[in-house]
From TrEMBL:
<dbReference type="InterPro" id="IPR029061">
    <property type="entry name" value="THDP-binding"/>
</dbReference>
<dbReference type="Pfam" id="PF02776">
    <property type="entry name" value="TPP_enzyme_N"/>
</dbReference>
<keyword id="KW-0786">Thiamine pyrophosphate</keyword>
<dbReference type="InterPro" id="IPR029035">
    <property type="entry name" value="DHS-like_NAD/FAD-binding_dom"/>
</dbReference>
<feature type="domain" description="Thiamine pyrophosphate enzyme TPP-binding">
    <location>
        <begin position="407"/>
        <end position="553"/>
    </location>
</feature>
<dbReference type="InterPro" id="IPR045229">
    <property type="entry name" value="TPP_enz"/>
</dbReference>
<dbReference type="Pfam" id="PF00205">
    <property type="entry name" value="TPP_enzyme_M"/>
</dbReference>
<feature type="domain" description="Thiamine pyrophosphate enzyme N-terminal TPP-binding">
    <location>
        <begin position="8"/>
        <end position="111"/>
    </location>
</feature>
<dbReference type="InterPro" id="IPR011766">
    <property type="entry name" value="TPP_enzyme_TPP-bd"/>
</dbReference>
<dbReference type="InterPro" id="IPR000399">
    <property type="entry name" value="TPP-bd_CS"/>
</dbReference>
<protein>
    <submittedName>
        <fullName>Thiamine pyrophosphate-binding protein</fullName>
    </submittedName>
</protein>
<dbReference type="InterPro" id="IPR012001">
    <property type="entry name" value="Thiamin_PyroP_enz_TPP-bd_dom"/>
</dbReference>
<feature type="domain" description="Thiamine pyrophosphate enzyme central">
    <location>
        <begin position="192"/>
        <end position="327"/>
    </location>
</feature>
<comment type="similarity">
    <text>Belongs to the TPP enzyme family.</text>
</comment>
<dbReference type="Pfam" id="PF02775">
    <property type="entry name" value="TPP_enzyme_C"/>
</dbReference>
<dbReference type="InterPro" id="IPR012000">
    <property type="entry name" value="Thiamin_PyroP_enz_cen_dom"/>
</dbReference>
């Protein structure tokens, strides 16, 4: 017989977990001690939401379950936003919260997390795929099995277990819960109909979203596009799916989108293949009835929202995007299409994406962009956010992972940051928790320490969760944080001004001094006033292996962000 906490941590080790994130508190002290005894690093976050964000970034890049732990009461409620954000990303994160004692249930005690107080089991239900309280030791194996299966199979997502202090010490038979690996994916019977639709289409379109990222269906999207010569556009959350300079790339649609995408939609699309997006208002900002396609084939693992946004005939293709696209590609194609050779592009792309340096070939590819440069405003003393993002692309290696925080700063990147290697740009346009990318980047870097990891954030996000930079300092993790500072909640301020003619409560009277803030936490920091400053700061950050670098860029507060379609 062992004790529950020991058996739980043994399972963590079996899952390949090396780091667990959280903030201590009495009810979870047994778990913290056991993590140390078994050699798993406990990473002290600065806020429980930050712990959840970091655990999600870790799960994303480590390809395992992330674990975030918090104490009872407010420790648990502080993680609710992080759980909701992980759900939006379909990331398998196990949230563990404490409770003072099962023996104390029904009596008055502080930070009560039972039904007599702040019931964490119920609070987590709407932001996770599974939530339960382990009221005695023999329940843990079956509850943990259900939690891990929910977290890692199908749509995937966060799960929650509340474990009381005294239950951690109860005796239990040794047990093992394995992360499922050989689970057959759902293949839709409508895949064959998709082939027929593609063969008949005269003007098709691929509209890709964040679900392609979740299923890692990058190769399948490219192969389908090239086989049937289908132009590709993306939602904001699907930005990193398709190479920007591919001949079939139309760019994004909506916020941060391109005129090419808009004009193509207006030219009369007869078939739109929608892959991995619910087609929310963020994805369809600016979509008008004259852009409606004649037919939609909608690939999604959850068909709840299929056919809800566009009132046109819609074929639902339910299941994992990668597997269903692969099925479409495996089916015979009876229509002879003109042969088009994309090999030259693939050869150029391969030479770029295998080079981890910011080489001349990368810079040459960037310079082919059809978007005209925006000059810095003379005498303003501040930089264009557009040009800042382009400078980032020139300075960063092609394999750098970029996590975009929620705000106008990332929409500038959606419009101007070229994708050289699919699967290197990540952004959530659905739940959209400000500041989440700061923790995601820290967790991702701990999971993948040999790859450059960058967080693009803003001063509003930095006010909310910037203290998690201290987590990277503590772990000596060389994450690069680029903060566009314009002294305001820019997306809100510009949108409110457009809607009602004025903005209230969206401009900071005391602007955050990001460089000083970062240095106070022990990070290396730079404040940039020119594009040359930005490029030099990134070059220095890439050489810094001892800890994080924060790059503050003072950007023009009056520049119009590419988010205004949502205000119309």
């Amino acid at each position: 017989m062992g004790i529950l906490v020991s058996e739980l941590v043994k399972n963590f080790k079996d899952w390949g977990i090396t780091h667990v994130f959280g903030i201590p508190g009495k009810p979870i002290v047994p778990l913290l001690g056991e993590l140390e005894d078994q050699g798993i690093r406990f990473v002290l976050s600065r806020h429980e939401a930050g712990a959840g964000f970091a655990a999600a970034g870790y799960a994303f890049r480590k390809k395992t379950v992330g674990v975030a732990i918090g104490t009872s009461g407010p420790g648990g409620t502080n993680m609710l936003t992080a759980a909701a954000q992980a759900k939006a990303y379909n990331l398998p994160v196990l949230f563990i919260t404490g409770h003072s004692s099962m023996k104390a249930v029904g009596t008055a005690h502080g930070q009560d997390s039972s039904a007599f107080g702040t019931d964490l089991e119920r609070l987590f239900e709407s932001v996770t795929l599974f939530s339960a309280r382990v009221e005695r030791a023999d329940l843990l194996p079956v509850y943990l099995m259900h939690a891990i299966h929910k977290a890692t199979v199908g749509a995937r997502g966060p799960v929650h277990l509340s474990i009381p202090y005294d239950v951690f010490y109860e005796k239990i038979e040794p047990f093992t819960v394995e992360i499922p690996t050989e689970v057959p994916q759902m293949i839709s019977s409508n895949a064959e109909k998709v082939v027929d639709l593609l063969n008949q289409a005269k003007k098709p379109l691929l509209f890709v979203g964040k679900g392609v990222v979740a299923s890692e269906a990058y190769d399948e999207v490219i192969e389908l596009a090239e086989r049937w010569h289908v132009p590709v556009m993306s939602t904001p959350g699907g930005k990193g799916v398709f190479p920007t300079h591919h001949p079939l790339c139309l760019g994004g649609f909506g916020l941060g989108g391109t005129e090419e995408a808009t004009e193509y939609l207006k030219s009369g699309v007869d078939l739109m293949l929608v892959v991995g997006t619910k087609l929310s208002d963020m994805s369809l900002a600016g979509f008008t009835t004259d852009m409606y396609p004649k037919q939609v084939a909608h690939f999604d693992i959850d068909i709840t929202m299929v056919g809800r946004s566009l009132q046109v005939p819609t074929l639902a293709v339910q299941g994992d995007a990668k597997q269903n696209l692969r099925r479409v590609l495996e089916l015979p194609n009876s229509v002879e299409l003109p042969v088009r050779d994309y090999s030259a592009f693939r050869e150029i792309a391969a030479s770029v994406v295998t080079d981890s340096d910011s080489s001349d070939s990368v810079k040459a590819l960037i310079e082919t962009s059809s978007v005209e440069a925006v000059e810095e405003e003379e005498g303003s003393g501040m930089i264009s956010a557009t040009e800042t993002v382009r400078a980032m692309r020139r300075a960063l290696p092609s394999n750098a992972l970029l996590f975009g925080d929620d705000g106008s700063h990332t929409f500038y990147a959606i419009a101007n940051y070229d994708i050289l290697e699919p699967g290197t740009f990540f952004f959530d346009d659905v739940f959209g928790a400000m500041g989440h990318a700061i923790g995601y980047a820290v967790g991702a870097k701990l999971a993948e320490p040999d790859r450059p990891v960058v967080c693009l954030t803003g001063d509003g996000c930095m006010f909310m969760h910037g203290t998690e930079i201290a987590m990277a300092v503590q772990e000596k993790s060389p994450v690069i944080f680029v903060c566009l500072n314009n002294g305001r909640l820019d997306m809100v301020e510009k949108g409110m001004s457009r809607m009602i003619g004025s903005a209230t409560g969206s401009v900071y009277e005391d602007v955050l001094k990001v460089k000083e803030f970062a240095e106070a936490m022990g990070a290396t920091a730079h404040c940039c006033h020119t594009i040359e400053d930005v490029e030099q700061a990134i070059a220095l950050a890439l050489e810094n292996t001892k800890g994080p670098t924060v790059i503050e860029v003072l950007v023009d507060p009056f520049e119009t962000p590419p988010t205004m379609k949502r205000a119309l």
